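Q: Structure tokens for this one, please.
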Amino acid sequence: MDDLKASLARPIQLAEQVIKWADEAQTFRQECQDLKAKLERLSTLLRQAARADLYERPARRILEDTDKALDKAAALLERCCGHGFVRRVFTIIPAGSFKKASYLLDNSLGDLTWILRVSNYAASDEDEEDDHIGLPPIAQNEPILFLIWEQIAVLQYGGLEARADAAASVVSLARDNDRYGRLIIEEDGVPPLLRLIKEGRADAQESAALAIGLLGRDPDCVDLMILAGVCTSFVKILKDAPMKVQGMVAWAVSELAANHPKCQDAFLQHNVIRLLVSHLAFETVQEHSKYAVASKMSIHSVVMDKKSNDSSQDPSGGGDQAATTAAKPTVGGGGTGASSSMTATVPGPSARPVGLAGMKMHNASMSATSSRGREYEDPEIKAYLKAHAARALGTLATGNPAICKNITESRALLCFSILLEKATGDVQYNSAMALVEICRVAEQNADLRRSAFKPTSPSARAVVDQLLRVVEKADYDDLLIPCITCLGCLSRTFRATETRVIGPLVRLLDEREADVSLEAAAALAKFACMDNYLHVDHCKSIIAHGGAKHLVQLVYFGEQVVQTAALVLVCYLAHNVPDSEDLAQAEILTVLDWAWKQGYISQDPVIESLLPEAKIRMELYQSRVGYY
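A: Here is the predicted structure, written as tokens:
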């Protein structure tokens, strides 16, 4: 900004000099006087700009054009000041030069008027705030950019009502075009949006959070927003704001993390994970007080809380009166000043405790009041917040072991299991998808598997129970495939004594829906692969539950992608349990021979590595017992 102020010195000095030349003009005096009037107005505006707090991005561009207009006028008026008859005769000034100079000065006047108006928007009258500021003449070249400048200027300098409307306009621009979103960020639109999230009304905060989420579609833009302090603003809202605004912020977090996974660690460092888990745990687990997050109370909440407080107090008000009396100094004719002073400093028996203990009790009371306020919120808003909190946790956990560990060390797994059982709609689905992302990371990370999904963990058992409930129910809905995926990813966490998992997955191989059969075959392949320590036991269990006959049907008659997944599982079964009588009766060797001849199947790299060995082992063991 100081650099911008310094750059105003030259045009101010040049304008004064050109005004003097206009008075000294020897030719085209009328035209010079017309230019002088415009130059005087321009000089006044430049001096106002030097005293104002300008919106820097457009101000620099406008000052560049103003410099050019002044240079043009200076060159023209200097030629009109030529002294001597010969010089005036041989100086040729086209008549159109004055029109062009006047046009440039008019544009500069309009541009400077615009930048001063938007930069002093907060000081304008309320009636003027309702009017459209309008675009400057320079907007003829790129109107969208200046429309963006206008909205950002209102966000920076406008009143609360105007800033709320500007945030809604920014949302519309960011939603329409990715390029507009990049321009909003490049023109410093994020800082005023973040300030609005902290300071605005609930509807303005919601619009600002929505705008931030929409602007995060470009990964480069996410980096700029992280540097601008978006994490700090989001943390403030997640700690203390209306639940609907917190839900929108949770959605924005999920958008930023989904579009730019590198920002996950920034949210982890700012403790966003724990705050999201706290919202997920509210009214989900009994110990939700551990996760209580302060929230602004609605009018209805305040009324209900007042009623509950009034009903718990003594109607006579004797307690308050006693506390007041005890706190007052004793005034009597026989008392000394010292005794009166000491009496005044000693609280009565019913007075509030002071010191650290008193502060703790006061904070606990405030927390309880905030929790009661949240309990009175609309159930739809509660579900809205939980749905977006679960979605945000899922996107933050994607491919990030540190965040997954942070999530699983809290009560999030227990929350997800309860929401899978009792919630509906987006809350239930987003909880399932969050579990999918955590389980995918656990599949690749042994430390996370051992810490979060050990068989003795109550929360892990609760999650597995709910996954099995959905899979056993086998209703073709949004939850079935995510739950199958989770069980497959957790295949290496199950003990040999866990017999509940294989059967339901095998039954899904006979499902009419191809995507269900595909996911079931892929999940069972993770049980049967050699990376699983209990792969032989799992293969025997798959065969015992009738998996061989279902796989034969899928290999022969399934869609190509299902054929490939089923054949991979067949290869694992043939490799690990080649002497199985059930495999022989299902004619698995014939299936392998047929698949070997199908070029489009055998070209798959996984099958190419498994099929020859599986075929050899089947031929070796089955020929011994005379099945072939």
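A few notes: Confidence is low (pLDDT under 50) at residues 85-90, 125-130, 288-309, 311-370. Residues 122 and 158 are 5 Å apart (CA to CA).
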